[in-house]
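can u pls check wat happens w/ zinc ion
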Amino acid sequence: MSWYILLAVLTVFQGQALQVEYPHEAGLEAATIAWAGRDVPFVREGERWLTVIGVDLDVEPGEHPAPITLHYAGGRTQARQEVIEVKGKSFPTTRLTVAPKYVELSPEDQARANREAKETRALYARLTPHKYWTGKFHTPVPGVTGGRNFGSRRVFNNQPRAPHSGADLRASTGTKILASNAGKVVLAHDFFFNGNAVFIDHGLGVYTMYLHLSKILVQPGDLVERGQVVGLAGATGRVTGPHLHWGVRVGNARVDPFSLMEMEAD
Ligand SMILES: [Zn+2]
């Protein structure tokens, strides 16, 4: 994928994370890029400034402006226009059969699911203005780099539901699940649809999540390293069998976790 942007039209597919870079210059003290309704900060690493934006899987194909604002010593600011060209992608439809209680929700389960959706929406709205992660993002199941069903349109028990917002990785119950990069655990509990789930904040609006675990081995507030065991794979929540659902959000954008893995991030 393309991850490098430097004052040029950048082409990206729906559902991808995108690393954006800007070279350091004398006096430059801060920079932001406006994307999806918010100003995403850059962080300086040596002679460059970098950040990540997410192109949601349902963003309209076409050209989208993404202005960069540069803040210099002495209070001077300068705007640079970037254009991000989003290309459409076709996602297959998957039909699945799950326990009826996950499709026809009881009033109690519906209330719980709504509450949990609110909890995760509030999380994605928070942007930690620094970066916990370093280097590349790794697969949470060693050796498993497949599971490319991100974005598939889904029909559960003959009823259409939201598209698949992550990638399902083969993992039998008890398989160690590893943090894909350094970050802070922000949620770690049992959810109605997600089952036992761990959410990690990597900073700059990047979150990874690990769902359907049989066991959670971290707590909110824990700082984790890349490769640290955060839980064991399982089949909790709305599933057809044991696997790891690995999800990534960048801001509010649902992006393919493998696009994050392909990002150069050193
Ligand atoms: Zn899944």
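Residues 178 and 227 are 5 Å apart (CA to CA).
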